[in-house]
Design goal:
alpha+beta; Arc Repressor Mutant, subunit A; four-stranded antiparallel beta sheet; 6 helices; about 30% helix; globular
């Protein structure tokens, strides 16, 4: 289980306070409201000072709009899933406080970032700014390597044939990385809609709602407080169940 986003250990930067002070002094920080789009461009480094950033992606529809007859869009239970490559936004993950991110332009894909909760504060830097803090640069690169490893686990989870396995694996990975403890386990401190979950695992909102009910019946997940998703005990053990 990873440290919670609110803990000091969740911030990998030893010189964090110096960086944030510098960013605010140079007007390189901005606060965003919930679901407000964060303007980004390629070549810049972004740091989440507080709150959480939601990354989403979409593919520009360059086809004629006709479905591909060789593309199977059925779930294991027979319900239709989302066909990848359409223009719907796909949830790609969170970036928590103390973590870096960057947006790379790669046609025909469009990547965007949004504040997931109110008062999310984001700092932006040029990579050349890090020449002043070489140790900080190393910590940023270490953070990106860690994110890359997590994405490989995510891809492994999305390779599961059964939708319910993809769903449980996806939720477990999120809570492993961002979860906070409560009396019966760990919970994701931010809300996610069933549509967002469906877009992440290649399914539909209706299917996610039904499978979430199954997972709750099996006591593999719980709903904590105001609709927050929780996993009992250690998420690593839950994923092995």
């Amino acid at each position: 289980m990873q440290s919670s986003p609110s803990s000091d250990n969740a911030r990998p930067f030893l010189t964090w306070q110096r960086i944030t002070d510098w960013a605010h002094a140079h007007y390189r920080a901005r606060m965003f409201n919930k679901d407000e789009r964060i303007p980004t461009r390629s070549g810049l480094l972004y740091l989440v000072e507080r709150g959480a950033v939601r990354l989403v992606g979409s593919a520009q529809d360059v086809s004629s709009g006709e479905p591909d007859p060789d593309f199977d869009v059925s779930d294991d239970d027979g319900s239709a899933s989302l066909a990848l490559g359409l223009s719907e936004e796909a949830f790609l993950g969170f970036v928590g406080a103390g973590q870096p991110f960057e947006i790379v332009a790669q046609s025909p894909f469009v990547l965007q970032s949004f504040a997931h909760i109110d008062q999310t504060t984001v700092i932006w830097l040029y990579w050349s700014d890090l020449d002043n803090w070489p140790h900080f640069r190393r910590e940023v690169l270490d953070a990106f390597r860690y994110q890359h490893q997590r994405k490989l686990l995510w891809l492994s989870t999305l390779g599961q044939r059964r939708t319910i396995d993809r769903l449980l694996g996806f939720l477990t990975l999120l809570i492993e990385e961002f979860g906070e403890p409560y009396e019966a386990g760990y919970y994701l401190p931010w809300s996610l809609t069933h549509a967002q979950i469906g877009s992440a695992i290649g399914s539909t909102r209706v299917t996610v709602t039904r499978l979430m009910g199954k997972l709750r019946q099996r006591k593999l997940i719980h709903i904590y407080k105001d609709g927050l998703i929780a996993i009992p005990g250690d998420p690593l053990l839950a994923r092995e169940a």
